[in-house]
Amino acid sequence: MSDWTMKGLDWDNPLRIRSATELTNWVQEIGFLPFFANEVTGFSVEEHTASHAWWTGNKATDPWEWREEIAASHTVAYGKFFDGRAGCWILMDRMRFSLCRVFAMATDGITAPP
Question: Would the pTM count as exceeding 0.85?
């Protein structure tokens, strides 16, 4: 088993996402964002938050806790959208979520509701 090192920013980095609201706004601006680092460098919540803030249970500063607040807002969808792969938790704006839902139903032979 290997160690997992978070790829976050320093706490005082001015580019760091500091709240669920900031994260929601950014997702609405860019469309979707994976929670964890992936093949596209810099394209994750992990890489834009303070690495030591994760899994602390602090609702104000913990990006993992923000997912509940964000999901409750109904402005951004949250879930495992790509083959249910572990580590593929993403946030997606409502328009793209609707498009992905229609695409998924079409590829499964299901028609979208009116």
Answer: no
